Fold this sequence. Notes:
The structure is a single chain. The protein is built from 9 helices and 7 strands. The chain is an alpha+beta fold. A 7-stranded mixed β-sheet has the order 2-1-3-7-6-5-4, sandwiched between helices. Helix 4 packs parallel to helix 7. The two termini are 70 Å apart.
Amino acid sequence: MRYRIKKRLVPVRADEVVPEGEPLVEIMSKEEYWKEYHTKYQDHLLMKSMERAQYCRADLLKGCVIGTLVIPVKKELLGRPVVFGYYMDQSRLILIDDSGEAEKILHEMERIQYFDKTCVSHMFFEFLEYQVKDEIEFLQKYEEKLAAMEDRIMSGKRDRSDVPGAILRARKELAKISSFYGQLLNVSQTLTENYNGLLKDEDCVLFHLFSGRMARLTEHGKELREYALQIREMYQVHIDMKQNHVLSFLTMVTVIFMPLTLIAGWYGMNFKNMPELNWQYGYQVCVTISVIIILIEIWYFNKNGWLKR
């Protein structure tokens, strides 16, 4: 699919000839790109980059920019990302995509139409902007999700969900999205440097602004990841406190019954000259003393607040 850039994207028919030098955006599959462009060094380098694409990158070459975009899917951040390759010179922007997502994005960009599109570099800037257009809202919702998790932990409510697993997943997702922001930051900084002279000064300003935005998003992502780490530590403290309460309770039970164990062991020796064994009220006195000891210990523990912890 091909589009002219005339303040907006204008579809080009398959049989239509586009004059040389007219700004053009084209979507191609890897097979189509390799079939039409395979004679230059940058074409081989781009295909090689796409075969093992794991991160966003931009390479400034003589007269062009090539690279890859590896975009995580918000609904499943730990799943398979969307991968694009791109080639840009002064008059062409070629998006290499086998998934069909690039065409959907261009249609959506044309629908919302923030600014007039004047050149391929401006178009590529808007394409990058589109990838992060809802990131502030996304990060705010993720922060609310972490806050809700923190509230559940602090309230002490029983939750069947795997809290450690949820925290671990959150940290992995935030690490991935923060890495994505950092990669886009590197791409925009590389384009801002413009050491091959491909971009105009006003285009460099746009990518410089994009760099600032990505730096803020990267910092926000790191803060949320630290927040998730704090929640994990708080959860561990909460678990330790519960274990300490259990151990304290078991210790108090042991202390309460220790005198009774002593009495049972003492009179269990059955020596012949133990008058209490043959005394008519020996059993009643032993029970009464045991009850009094237990009550005194419970009163003492309660007075010191140990039973309320």
